[in-house]
């Protein structure tokens, strides 16, 4: 389900973002994303 963004969920959203970027672009160093 897609919900409106709530600032209280920022940590969870960023965790999903970094995890999926690292998995999808494993040829790019982690430091690039952070």
TrEMBL record:
| Keywords tagged on the record | Transferase
- Full protein name: Putative acetyltransferase
Single GO MF annotation: transferase activity
């Amino acid at each position: 389900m897609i919900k409106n963004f709530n600032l209280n969920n920022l940590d969870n959203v960023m965790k999903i973002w970094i995890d999926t970027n690292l998995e999808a672009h494993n040829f790019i160093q982690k430091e690039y994303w952070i």
